[in-house]
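Changelog-adjacent note: as of this version, every example in the card shows the full chain rather than a window. The one below runs 199 residues end to end.
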Amino acid sequence: MQLSELIQAVRDEVQDQAAQRWSDATIIRYLNDAQLDLAQVSKQLTSWTTQVQAGAVYAPRPPDLLIPKAFWFEIGTWRYPLEMKYGLPPENQVVQGDPEAVHLVGDYMYFYPVVQQPGTLYISGTMRPTPMALNTDVPSIQDADSLLITYAAWMCFLSDGDPIASTKESWYRQRKLEWAILDAQKHPMPDRIERNWWW
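Full-length structure tokens:
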């Protein structure tokens, strides 16, 4: 369904066809929030690569990387996994060598130790859904139109203090679990992402 159709479906669900209670902008925000919510349980993986120069302390996090899952570093023909950590690396960042870990801090990925030789950072993770804005836009999340509609309706009712919000929430959460199972079946991956996933 296109965005205009999704908006109309939400309006039908909440009985606000005349747009007297919720604006299109509000419904669009709820629909995009629903995409983000579903993306967080999706098993579909995307890959990114970043060239890293010698002496690099950090690299910018790809803006469309929602949830990083695994990192590798390649020097020449040697590719090896990096440990993924959160928070700044140890204070002795003057140490240089072959990086052993990536520390995630906001929009940056810090290397520890500091990169001594130029190489390539490989990233595997969940891609951030593209926000819908134009009437002809379609969701990035596949096979989930009814879930997006229900999530948006739930948020509408919740913002209005309508008790039917709890019913919509229960239905959404149950269908979300079912969707996640089907998504995992479509994108089977081992619990541990091995380096040969790239080939």
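Structural remarks: The chain has a mean pLDDT of 93.
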